[in-house]
């Protein structure tokens, strides 16, 4: 990755302030590189917005961030659940397979909203072939769950588990889903993440031309 981009990401992290203190620099770097690589391809229509979930952190901490890149602001920070097939406190096993109940790593594009068994939900489309491309067909979506709440952590010492969805706290899910309108980018990061979109040189060239937009 060019030093110019690496320095810009460091400056972004610092500007995000205390709300991003738990966002590991290496994960923010992954998210920014993927955003800058994907946006010019037309797969991501919404400029200047980025969501990242760090599944390598324990599920007892807020490990989802929604970031306004242009204004260097954390718009939302919340708990987020992982799939029951992926592990206990931290997600350690990942799968793209039907009925695996696992979280799938990689980059996602947010799609339409609908009212389903979990109420108001937003579908997401996996952009990494072989890793998360089945997400749409698996109905891996953003939705609310009582087991993804601070109250659940207080009672049980950990979050509950989804069937692979990045489930959100009932108190925050509507605002987060509304912010991540169609065409926004979400990175679900974790151990062993590999993606064709983690192209540092391409991201560096894009940043020099257009910055974060």
TrEMBL record:
InterPro entries: YkuD_2 (IPR032676). Pfam families: YkuD_2 (PF13645). It comes from the Bacteria. This is Murein L,D-transpeptidase catalytic domain family protein. It comes from Hymenobacter armeniacus.
